């Protein structure tokens, strides 16, 4: 096991702390490393035992037979099954810190781990056979965050369309956290950081990426509209004032976004109920299913500290 990395599939609902406790029980003489920074040669060549453990995210890899959009239930299965690649990200600041906009110089250092076999398997863990690292620029990080947010809204909308008996609270929190900037800050930080003449002049190569980010911001509106429509149908009278405030915030957000970035439209709710999915669905980046624990990497690492992720939208004040 010396100087090797393994991806371990945790038990259902098992916390990482509990997994670490089990691991240290098997190696009573081992010392738990307190950071996720790569161990130095003094650690690797030491005669002592050290264990490093942190959570990684499985990377969705749909089989090639799914050459067209498939149902959310199938996608959810492959988010945490038949997975061979996992990732771990940490934020890295480059240049001078901007106290007014933390996104302007927030780079992401992402490490990709590829296991010998796909999880789950006969064993709950497999050795990592290859590791590589990529750097994601602040603009690319903003694009990824918007894609994740749109994906999350659409997934929850589809779940409520498929099952009208689902509780409304998760939908309430998600929608309010996006349309109310007092909760999550809004995407105005992206506008201040990337949509300025200065940035465009200094980074002409980013023109296509800026247009992509603007397009994702515009696409968020129809996703939110459908979510708020469903929320209005299911909300209780006690929560009606909350819903009305959320609607007011959304109207302001919608007017602003459509004026600046154009109007987008998705398929009708009736089509969605028949199993169709919005044509605008973006799956370049996906989130692991919340119904299962994240996988865990142990023993060694290339990076540290998970990435903060905040949905980007800007509603009423």
How do the helices and strands line up, and which of them pair or pack?
Elements: E1 6-8, H1 16-26, E2 31-32, H2 41-44, E3 50-51, E4 53-58, H3 72-80, E5 83-93, E6 106-119, E7 125-136, H4 138-162, H5 169-179, H6 181-184, H7 188-194, H8 197-202, H9 207-234, H10 240-261, H11 269-273, E8 295-298
Parallel strand pairs: 2-3
Antiparallel strand pairs: 1-7, 1-8, 4-5, 4-8, 5-6, 6-7
Oligomer state of the chains in this structure: single chain
> Any idea how many domains?
2
Which residues form runs of ≥5 with pLDDT under 50?
Answer: 269-296, 298-313
Q: Helix fraction?
A: 40-55%
Average pLDDT level: 81
The biggest sheet, with number of strands, parallel, antiparallel or mixed sense and barrel status, is: 6 strands, antiparallel, barrel
Query: Reading side by side through the largest sheet, how are the strands ordered?
Result: 1-7-6-5-4-8
Question: What would you note in describing this structure?
Answer:
One of its GO terms (biological process) is myoblast fusion. This protein has 2 domains: 1-136, no CATH class; 138-269, Methane Monooxygenase Hydroxylase, Chain G, domain 1. Helix content is 42%, strand content 17%. The protein has 11 helices and 8 strands. It has helices at 16-26, 41-44, 72-80, 138-162, 169-179, 181-184, 188-194, 197-202, 207-234, 240-261, 269-273, and strands spanning 6-8, 31-32, 50-51, 53-58, 83-93, 106-119, 125-136, 295-298. Strand 2 (31-32), helix 2 (41-44) and strand 3 form a beta-alpha-beta unit. Helix 5 crosses helix 10 (240-261). It is globular. Residues 269-296 and 298-313 have low confidence and may be disordered.
């Amino acid at each position: 096991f010396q100087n090797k990395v393994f991806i371990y599939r945790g038990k259902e609902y098992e916390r990482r702390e509990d997994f670490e406790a089990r691991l240290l029980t098997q190696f009573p003489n081992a010392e738990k490393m307190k950071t996720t920074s790569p161990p130095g040669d003094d650690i690797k060549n030491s005669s002592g035992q050290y264990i490093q453990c942190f959570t990684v995210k499985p990377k969705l890899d749909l089989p090639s037979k799914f050459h067209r959009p498939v149902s959310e239930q199938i996608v959810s299965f492959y988010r945490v099954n038949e997975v061979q690649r996992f990732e771990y990200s940490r934020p890295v600041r480059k240049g001078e810190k901007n106290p007014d906009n933390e996104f302007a110089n927030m780079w992401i250092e992402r490490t990709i781990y590829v296991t010998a076999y796909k999880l789950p398997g006969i064993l709950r863990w497999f050795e990592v056979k290859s590791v590589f690292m990529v750097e994601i620029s602040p603009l690319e990080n903003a694009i990824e965050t918007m894609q994740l947010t749109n994906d999350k809204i659409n997934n929850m909308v589809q779940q409520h369309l498929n099952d009208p008996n689902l509780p409304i609270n998760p939908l309430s929190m998600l929608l309010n956290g996006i349309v109310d900037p007092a909760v999550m800050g809004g995407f105005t930080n992206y506008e201040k950081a990337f949509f300025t003449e200065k940035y465009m002049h200094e980074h002409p190569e980013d023109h296509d990426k800026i247009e992509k980010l603007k397009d994702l911001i515009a696409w968020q509106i129809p996703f939110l509209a459908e979510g708020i429509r469903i929320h209005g149908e299911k909300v209780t009278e006690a929560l009606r004032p909350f819903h009305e405030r959320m609607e007011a915030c959304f109207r302001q957000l919608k007017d602003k976004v459509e004026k600046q970035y154009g109007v987008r439209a998705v398929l009708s709710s009736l089509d969605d109920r028949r199993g169709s999915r919005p044509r605008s669905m973006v799956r370049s980046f996906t989130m692991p299913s919340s119904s299962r624990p994240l996988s865990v990497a142990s023993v060694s690492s290339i990076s540290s500290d998970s990435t903060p992720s905040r949905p980007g939208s800007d509603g009423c004040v």
